[in-house]
Amino acid sequence: MRSLIDILDFSVEEIEELLTVANDIIDNPQKYGEICKGKKLATLFFEPSTRTRLSFEAAMYELGGNVIGFSEANSSSASKGESVADTAKTISCYADIIAMRHPKEGAPFVAAQNATIPVINAGDGGHNHPTQTLADLLTIYREKGGFNNLTVGFCGDLKFGRTVHSLINALSRYSGIRVVLISPEELKLPSYVKKDVLLKNGIPYTQTTSLEDAIPELDILYMTRVQRERFFNEEDYLRLKDSYVLEPKKLTNAKKDLSIMHPLPRVNEISVSIDSDPRACYFKQVLNGKYVRMALILKLLKEAGRI
Ligand code: NCD
Q1: Which of 229, 264, 268, 293 for mutating ligand 1's site (highest number of atoms within 8 Å of CB)?
Q2: Number of structural domains found in the chain
Q3: Most Cβ neighbours (<10 Å): which of 110, 134, 145, 268?
C-alpha cells in the first residue's frame, strides 16, 4: 500500500506530477469536484493543528468526499492506552485514507505498516512534515518557476523544525541548490540531516547566527517558529524564542525577488508589517497547501484502487 511518510517516498518525477495536478486544480477546480464522492478521509490528529488538518479536510470536501476524525489525542482511545498500530487497523475499517499527526517520531510510519489504506504523515514530532513540503514546493515552483540554482536560507529552530528537515530533503535532489542555516547555537540543524542529506548530496551549506549577514545572497528565506512544545524546559524556550524577528529594515539589502516563506503559525518571527511586502509568500503557502493535498489524496486513492 502506497503511503507518504517521508518526502523521499516520492520520486522527483512523482512530485512534478503532483505539482502539475495541483496547478490544474487551481485552474480548473470544477473538473475535480466529484472525484472522491462516497470516499472518506480520516484525520487523526494527536497534536494541535490549524492549517494542516483543516486544509486536508477542505481538500477532501472540494474533491466531493467526506471527513471523519479527531483533533486531539484526549478524545481518542489513545488516552485509554490504545496503540498506534491498533488505531490504524481500526480506522482502516471505516475510511479510505488517513492523515495522521503525532508527537512521536515514526508514529505515522507504524500506522502505515498496520493500515490497509494509505497513510499520510501530517507531521511526526520534530522529524518530518512531507505535506508541508509539498505546499512549500508548489509555492517555490509558482514563485520561481523551478527548483534549480536557488540559495535557500532556513532561519530559526532548525533543530526541532520538522518542516525544515523535510524541505531540505526535497531540495537536495535538485541541482545548484545552496543552503544557508541561520540559527542560535542551541537550535542548529541536527547532524544527521547535515550528514545524510547535505553532505551526502554534495549540497554546499554555511551556518551562521546572523540573519542580517545572510539575507543579501538569498533567493528564498524560510523563517520558522521556535518549537516551544519540543523544549525540555521553559527557560530555554523563553531565552531563545525571539532570536530572530524579521522586520522591514532587515530587508534593506535583500534581493528584489526574494521569496519570504514560513510554514506558519508565526509567533514573533515575522513582523506583520512584512505581510504587505510583495515578497511575502506565507499566505500563498497556506492556499497552495490545500491544492497540493487535493492532488496527493487523488494520487494515493488512485494507487490504492479506491477511485
Ligand atoms: C508546522 C508544523 O506543524 O510543523 N505547521 C504547519 O503544519 N504548517 C510548523 C510549526 O508548527 O511551527
Answers
A1: 264
A2: 2
A3: 134
Separation of alpha carbons 119 and 290, rounded Å: 17
What is residue 275's predicted lDDT score, i.e. its pLDDT? 98
Q: Are residues 124 and 174 in the same domain?
A: no
Residue 123, all three cell numbers: 507531521
CATH number of the domain that 96 lies in? 3.40.50.1370
How confident is the model at residue 4, as a pLDDT?
Answer: 98
- pLDDT attached to residue 71: 96
Based on the fold, state whether residues 102 and 87 are members of the same structural domain: yes
pLDDT computed for residue 159 by the predictor: 98
Together in a domain, 214 and 70: no
Known catalytic membership, residue 52: yes
Residues in the chain with pLDDT values less than 50: none
| SS3 category, 97 | strand
- What are residue 179's DSSP bridge partners? 152, 205
Q: pTM for the complete prediction? A: 0.98
Is residue 162 flagged as an active site residue? no
pLDDT at 302: 98
Residue 1 lies in a domain: no
Residue written as grid cell 487523526: 44
- Which among 218, 236, 214 is positioned nearest to 226, based on CA atoms? 236
228 labelled catalytic: no
pLDDT of amino acid 256: 98
* CA-162 nearest atom, ligand 1: 4
DSSP label of 189: P
Q: Whose CA is nearest to atom 11 of ligand 1?
A: 265
Whether ligand 1 lies within 6 angstroms of the CB of 51 is answered as yes
- Does the C-beta of 55 come closer than 6 Å to ligand 1? no
Asked whether residue 109 falls in the same domain as residue 139, the answer is no
**185 in the same domain as 201:** yes
| Secondary structure tally for the chain: helices H, strands E | 10, 9
Q: Which of 54, 132, 167 is the pocket-test mutation for ligand 1 (most atoms within 8 Å of CB)?
A: 132
Predicted local confidence at residue 278, as pLDDT: 98
Catalytic (active site) residue 239: no
